[in-house]
Each structure stands twice: as structure tokens, then as C-alpha cells.
Amino acid sequence: MKCEQERMLQVGVMRLGLGALVVRRAHCLSRAVHTSTQKVEYKPIKKVMVANRGEIAIRVFRACTELGIRTVAVYSEQDTGQMHRQKADEAYLIGKGLPPVAAYLHIPDIIKVAKANDVDAIHPGYGFLSERADFAQACVDAGVRFIGPTPEIVRKMGDKVEARAIAIEAGVPVVPGTNAPISSLSDAKEFSNTYGFPIIFKAAYGGGGAGHEGRQGELEENYQRAYSEALAAFGNGALFVEKFIEKPRHIEVQILGDKYGNVIHLYERDCSIQRRHQKVVEIAPAAQLDPHLRDRLTADSVNLARHVGYENAGTVEFLVDKHGKHYFIEVNSRLQVEHTVTEEITDVDLVHAQLHVCEGRSLAELGLRQDNIRINGCAIQCRPATTEDPAPGPEPAPGPEPRLFQSPAPGPEPRPWPRAPPPVPEPSPLSERACVRVLGRGG
């Protein structure tokens, strides 16, 4: 869908760690009665904890407040001044004595706080524990609802090798790759002998899109680097290998399922503009995408989700080669950073929908039928500001976060924060590198 003479109608600025998300949208979750015979008890949510920090925590808090749900924040000792703590109705320290990342990964502390303060449901946000099946299971075991897919689905989708096998079962095309994690460099050499170079190494138990390209003469170095990074990031150095598709488009489809077996898509996002395999610009809908290819991408996404009984929000990611062939990459069983562009073009609040689905409401009851989902304009999200060392490269580097600005009304004019911003944190290797995101919509 083209956006000729695009007119910028809405602009918001998001700041990770300290700031807020400014997005204005129409809410179209009209009530209807579903006809499914499956029995699911409707249990309203009264209090939500977000097991995360920064912008995504604030985003979920805002949705909860709009729905009359009380909110609970958790924070590490290093995050006492962060804005997400101030935006919640209640806030509690976790991971005392631990570094910040370890604090937000400390499942026993998070569950303990939730139980002690009558939390009904936990939203994992993105990053940290959002794709950890053991965390989803810990919530269920504690009698606290997990706002996301079931623990079993999180486990299956988190295991990239199993997710690949499921895609094959569902008839979704995949990139040639190993059917199980490789255990040695010799396995990688055997694969390259069969399929040729280049190939790419990816962590078997983690997402984020990062990988290490392997070319002839550099195989051992890139294998060791990929193994070390996977071990440090996910606690497991297991890798799988795929044929590297050169200069592909990266297209992902937003899906949403309920507890009754219903699944819809909310069209696609183009995330092809990347740096170091990390998304920099996200556009919805994908420009100049062949309508037949769009139909295949969305149909494959919905079929895959139905095949595994997927519920709540998720994203199915694909590569599209220069010949227009698409290949499944992975399923992210969580809300994506770039969910905002989908909200802008569909007028559907995805966090509202997540909360309602978790309560037991059907998509039909929320007015979310596939025939009702339409593309309305276009939207783009950019991550133009990152903390980087400008020489040489530049290389991503932690650094102090800049002063926060937001635009309280539509328009690109930045306005200063209406009160003194929280203290700027000291540079830390644990700081979020992308410190600003800008969202724009055109019609």
C-alpha cells in the first residue's frame, strides 16, 4: 500500500528507561458475543504487575489505567529513580544486592512480590523474562496469570529448532538449516559442505535477530563468537545453523489468538533496515509488497498459530528473498518493541487486547474479527538515537541517557518534559543502547 504525499498526522517520542510513550489512537474494541462452545471462565483482572522496566512497563501501566486496573512496578536497587517506578500505583524492590539485569531475572523475588501484594496477572514486557517458559510456568504454579501464551507454547517457540520443526509440520516454508542444535565446529563445517557459504549461526534458545555470518576462511572465528555470545546472553551456548539469505527483506506478521482457538493477523511490518542484525526502522504496512505475497505471509502465520493453539499476542517473522520466496525465521511469543506501528495502522490497542484475552474474553467479543481488521494509513518507527562510541565504526557503547523530550500534542515539535526529569544514570554496560524511538503516522 503506497502512502503518496504522506502527511504526518501523529508523532510520538519514546525514551527507554525513563520516558513515556505518546501515541493517540482510536479504540475499536466493540463488544460482541462469541459462539464458541469451549468453556473458559471469565475472570476480570484487578491488579497487574509488569516484570520489566522503562518504556514498556509504562506502556502497559497506561493501558491498565485506561481499563481501571491497578498497577505494580518492580525495580532494582540501581533503578530507584526510574520513571516506571513512579508511574505505577505500587512499586517494590527486587533482587536486593544483585546487578540490575540479574534483579529482573530473579523469578523467586518477582513471584514473591506478586503473591504478597495480591497481583492477579503479570505482564512480562519484552526482553528479560518475556520468552522464558520457566517464568510463565512459575506464574501459573503460583496462581498468577501470565499475560502471554501458555508456558508450553512459550517453550516450543523459544526453542528455535523445535519452532522450525513445527513450522514444517504446519506447511510453512523454512530456510535450509540444521534440525537440531550443533555440538561442534565440525557440524558447522559439514553443513557448509552441503549447502555452501555463506551460512549464519544463531542462538538456539534466544531471539532478538542477532546472528553471526560464517564465510569461508572465517568459520571457526564466527562459530566461537556466536557460541560465547549465546552462552552469555541466554545461559546456553547451543547454536543452530542456517543458509544465509543474502539481502533479504525482513517481514513480520502480528498475530493475536484467544483461549477459544481463534487467531487473527493484524497485517505485517517491514523491519528490513537493520544494523548489526538489530532493527532500526520498522514500517507498517510493508511498502511495495506484492498482494499475493502478503496473503501467503498472513495465511502461513495464522495457520502456524492455529497449529500450536497459540493465544495472546505474538509475531511470526519471515525472510523474503529477491525472488519473492518467503522463509519462516521464528515466532516471538511476546509483545514486540515495534507493536506501536501495527496499532497505528489498525486502530487496535494490542495491550488492551492482551489483557482482555488473558481475562478469558474471545476475539469476537472484543470486536476483533479478521474481516474487521483494515489497514488505515501507514506508520513508521525509528530508533535514531543510540549510545555509541563514534570511533571506530561506530561501535555500540553504554552511555548517559539524554534529557527527555516529548510532544504532548500531534506534531513533530518537541516540548520539554513538564517537570524535572529523573536523574541521568551513570554509564553502564547494562544500559539500554537505544535511548530514543520516534513514531510517526501518515494517511
UniProtKB/TrEMBL annotation:
GO aspect biological process, one term: gluconeogenesis
Alphabetized Gene3D superfamilies for the sequence: 3.40.50.20, ATP-grasp fold, A domain, ATP-grasp fold, B domain
Statement: the UniProt record of this protein carries the keyword Nucleotide-binding: yes
An MF annotation (GO) of this entry: pyruvate carboxylase activity
Species: Anguilla anguilla (European freshwater eel)
Bias-annotated ranges (Pro residues): 391-401, 409-428
Keywords: ATP-binding, Biotin, Ligase, Nucleotide-binding
UniProt keyword Nucleotide-binding present: yes
Record-linked InterPro entries: ATP-grasp, ATP_grasp_subdomain_1, BC-like_N, Biotin_carboxylation_dom, CPAse_ATP-bd, PCB-like, PreATP-grasp_dom_sf
Stated name of the protein: Pyruvate carboxylase
Lineage: Eukaryota, Metazoa, Chordata, Craniata, Vertebrata
Residues in Biotin carboxylation domain copies: 44-443
